[in-house]
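Morning!

As promised:
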Amino acid sequence: MDVRSELQKLPPPDPAGEARVWAKYRESRAQPARVRWVVPALGLGLLAAAAAIAVLPRLGDAPRTVAIDDGAAAEQWSDVVHLETEGRGEARGTDRDLEIAWESGTITAHVTPNTGTHLAVVTDEARVEVVGTVFSVTRDKLGVRTSVAKGRVKVECTSGESGYVTPEDGERTCLPVRPALLLARADALTDLGADSATVLDTLDRGVAAATPGSLVHGELLVRRMHARGDAGRIDEALADAGAYLGSSETPRAVEVRRYAAWTAMASRGCAVALPHLEPLEKAGNDADRVLLAECVAAPDPTRARALLERALAGSLDETWAERARTDLRALEGR
Amino acid sequence: MTATHPGIGYARAALAGDDAAIDALAKAWLPTVYAWCHRLGGPGVDAEGAAHDVLMVMCRKVQSVRTPEQFPSWLFGACRRVVANHRRKAWLRRWVPGPIGDRPHPDRGPERSAQARQAADIVWKALDALPAGQREVLVLCELEERSGSEAAEILGVPLGTVKSRLRVAKQAFRAAVEAQGVPADGTPAVEGF
């Protein structure tokens, strides 16, 4: 089904309507402000009073939709539901049966217990359902976090986990399910100083969910390579480097090769480092060339000398320059 | 969007305090605002009343816009809020007697009009079932055929958000149409035809 052609089935706006709007606009602009507001306000007041008397008993049965814009706001949805919001979403339903599609930010819902009220907050990552309680749902880079002040809510995460949350449980988080959002969560966790196991769990989920070869998949692999390396899981970090370099989109190839080469050199030796060091002779920097020279010195001292001389003629800092000079002296002493 | 719309010069003058430019700005944007109100509000909303309200909001508050380039996005935000208010109030009209129907199309006989009306009803219902953000991106990108960058500028969100929201909106829209029993070719079955 082609969405665009389906939408074209909608009737166009009435062309004569523009003229009517314009005439009404000119009329409103021509009237003094006091007259413009006082008369309609009185009329509206009378109309509202009449409508309220006529239909008040049935108000609670009428489904309605309320758009919630950015910014702090409070909405007394009904006599049994009060919403406090700081974010964006849309609420729709009746007084006692309400569903809120929540896009971003925090929503706190106060639901009077034992009134048979059904309220659900729905995001891409979670569905939070409640019968009589006070609870908050926050959607941000970390995912969807639910906390309960009073009562009990049922949380169903899109990723599969589900369960009940009470005030004693603290905060329950439903992780994002889309790879790009998992990447954002991993970065946010790193910024917050979270432990490596938590970061790696998020990255593992992201790598599993992303399409191999996509840019997001590559970024997740690079993040996981660093996280695994930092956690001392060298072989796994090198495996991530290999997976990244083997994919089609590798905008960070030099950075990944350097990390793999230096990590391998420090813990696994030249045999493992050399496949990553070789491509860095051209693409890398002078420090990479010093390391490459050290790895090729035994089988090919002439090439090692040439590499060291080129590095020394380049832009090494003093520490690396001293290391290169030491290597060069060792070669000349052979 | 901002570079090509004829009202951008008026926006600059209106922001500078030129009262006459406000009317010119309203005139230039009236077709767009009216179409937005019609498409975002659906058949239950008085699009003419909503468009009038948006223009009056523009008159009162246009000078709060910081730059002319931000005017389209600001106007769309005003439109979104006004339409949301009209949608909220629309249920009241259910108690007001009188038919609410489409205009007969001059090129179609009564049978075709009935068929077209039924097809339109299905699309309206499908659109109404979507969250506001998805409805907006469908209207801008698919119905008004604006580019993703234009839609991102108007909605005030990143291009990537527009793309992902559009993808989800299309899926939800298709599901909502199919949930009404429309076959794969998209043609609703009309009883008696």
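Chain B touches chain A through 54 residues (CB under 8 Å).

Hope this helps with the figure draft.
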